[in-house]
Amino acid sequence: KQEVTQIPAALSVPEGENLVLNCSFTDSAIYNLQWFRQDPGKGLTSLLLIQSSQREQTSGRLNASLDKSSGRSTLYIAASQPGDSATYLCAAKTGANNLFFGTGTRLTVIP
Amino acid sequence: GAGVSQSPSNKVTEKGKDVELRCDPISGHTALYWYRQSLGQGLEFLIYFQGNSAPDKSGLPSDRFSAERTGGSVSTLTIQRTQQEDSAVYLCASSLVSGGRVETQYFGPGTRLLVL
Questions:
Q1: Per the CB < 8 Å rule, is B105 touching A34?
Q2: Whose CA is closest to B64, among B85, B35, B39?
Q3: In the predicted model, is pLDDT for residue B1 greater than 60?
């Protein structure tokens, strides 16, 4: 069974700092890997999706990379802002249907 | 445009009662997923619907859980004889499937279920 781990569980940074969130998965036979953010009491918002054939995806200040062979993905956030404060989840899609989620990194950006 | 909607947003029920949770996916999305997010735990896959194919029920935790998707659109997740451990946020997601490839999943706001 695919296991997805996210480190660190929580992270606090001052506004403006660049940061990296880490995600690792045990089964490298993934279809894609997706990063989400979840605000308190809200559902998930998709940020980036990297297909298994891709190495990275970028959207604005966000850049996600994927290294299937090592079972790792990173989410890089540039010039962090207080509005970036949320829980960030990575999810690996394996087999036909399932998304396997990590437990998330709770990010706090301090003004 | 309209996203994935779920109802009710909150549900409090007594142990042993049945509950129904509803999901309206994004129009045109053929794939629909149910997940559960328990306190302090990650999201857990429950069930997947794709078009007219038989659903993937491999994530359902017990036979008290069932789901239907009528007309390829709206889905209901039913929990019979609810237990306290069923308390969680139940999230629904939908996505397109193009060229056999599943695209980004879009999530609804969830239904917060509390079983007393």
A1: yes
A2: B85
A3: no
